[in-house]
């Protein structure tokens, strides 16, 4: 589909000036496992400041990218830099500037919370005790509790509190709310937003939960099969995707040739078309195909991203 070729936006003119210096610089990065490309010639710059959401279908390469960025995995080819340092030569002092929280929330199960925190404090010179207490209190985690006694949501809160207390320049969150119930999820997001508001950390947030992205993200980065296919503020992306509902009566004209078409569904006898960058005369095109009436509707971020990611699978009817 030709739309794919136009998806990657140039550096965003709407980005605030404070976020011009990249925290992540990825150039032609590939990571192969046998014949499988987890990352495929990926090029991506993430500017300093703000919350950057990385989304993509399962297997798009999000976790692989984080592993390379954090120096846990060597790429097959290409270059990646984090906070100005080549990812293959990250040292302890670089790690002290980077926080990482993933869905596992793994911590030494046998230790008490106070012991884990004491260990962390020693490692991070910019430790912010007030910020730690603020977040951890939100989750009602007690210092004397052992890690194994904490619920999944409480462990997520403890991890977030420790990560934010490190005052990292860059915080990477890889599906941090996976498996949390709605209450814990809300507590996690509220704590994150409050902590971000009073810090100057750049956040990279990976999630399949589009309502979280909608609430948090200043910048939306979409990966597909190890490649960048879109980067822009989320509302800008939503404005580019439009929904057209057309009534063709009993007919079902072929629509797959329409420029920018991402998805077509038939609901209650009406054709619902999602388009990227619909041409100005799209209504006339529908009329030319026999539409008796049509109207244009709004699209949520969730629906727009889903249409983009499933555009190859959702065969237009
Ligand atoms: N150690 C490995 N060995 C072989 N293949 C791997 C390995 N790690 C990742 N892959 C493959 O690389 C691709 C990218 O995986 P990755 O975990 O980075 O995706 P993801 O976007 O994080 O997915 P998800 O949303 O499901 O967590 C997948 O196709 C996966 O099968």
TrEMBL record:
Query: Does the record bear Transport in its keywords?
Result: yes
| Record has ATP-binding as a keyword | yes
GO molecular function, a single term: ATP hydrolysis activity
Highest taxon of the source?
Bacteria
* Residue stretches making up the ABC transporter domain: 24-250
Spell out the Pfam families in the cross-references: ABC_tran
Please name the InterPro entries in this protein's record.
AAA+_ATPase, ABC_transporter-like_ATP-bd, ABC_transporter_ATP-binding, P-loop_NTPase
What the entry lists under Gene3D superfamilies is as follows:
P-loop containing nucleotide triphosphate hydrolases (3.40.50.300)
What are the entry keywords?
A: ATP-binding, Nodulation, Nucleotide-binding, Transport
Tell me the PANTHER family matching this sequence: ABC TRANSPORTER ATP-BINDING PROTEIN, ABC TRANSPORTER ATP-BINDING PROTEIN NATA
Q: Which family does it belong to?
A: Belongs to the ABC transporter superfamily.
Protein name, UniProt field: ABC transporter ATP-binding protein
């Amino acid at each position: 589909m030709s739309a794919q070729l136009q998806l990657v936006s140039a550096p965003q003119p709407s980005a605030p000036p404070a976020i011009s210096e990249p925290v992540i610089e990825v150039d032609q990065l590939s990571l192969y496992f046998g014949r499988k490309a987890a990352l495929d010639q990926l090029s991506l710059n993430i500017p300093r400041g703000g919350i950057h959401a990385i989304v993509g279908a399962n297997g798009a390469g999000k976790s692989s990218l984080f592993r390379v960025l954090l120096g846990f995995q060597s790429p097959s080819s290409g270059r990646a830099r984090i906070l100005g340092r080549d990812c293959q030569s990250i040292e302890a002092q670089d790690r002290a500037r980077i926080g990482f929280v993933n869905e596992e929330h793994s911590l030494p199960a046998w230790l008490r919370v106070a012991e884990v925190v004491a260990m962390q404090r020693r490692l991070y010179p910019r430790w912010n005790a007030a910020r730690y207490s603020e977040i951890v209190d939100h989750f009602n985690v007690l210092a004397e509790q052992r890690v194994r006694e904490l619920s999944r949501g409480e462990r997520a809160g403890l991890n977030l509190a420790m990560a934010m207390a490190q005052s990292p320049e860059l915080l990477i969150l890889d599906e941090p709310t996976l498996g949390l119930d709605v209450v814990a999820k809300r507590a996690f997001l509220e704590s994150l937003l409050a902590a971000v508001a009073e810090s100057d950390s750049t956040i990279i947030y990976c999630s399949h939960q589009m309502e979280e992205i909608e609430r948090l993200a200043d910048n939306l980065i979409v990966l597909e099969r190890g490649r960048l296919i879109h980067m822009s503020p989320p509302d800008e992306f939503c404005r580019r995707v439009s929904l057209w509902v057309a009534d063709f009566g009993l007919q079902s004209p072929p629509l797959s040739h329409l420029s920018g078409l991402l998805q077509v569904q038939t609901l209650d006898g009406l054709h619902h078309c999602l388009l990227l960058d619909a041409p100005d005369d799209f209504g006339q095109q529908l009329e030319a195909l026999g539409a008796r009436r049509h109207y244009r509707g709004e699209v949520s971020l969730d629906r727009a991203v889903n249409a983009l990611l499933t555009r190859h699978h959702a065969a237009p009817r």
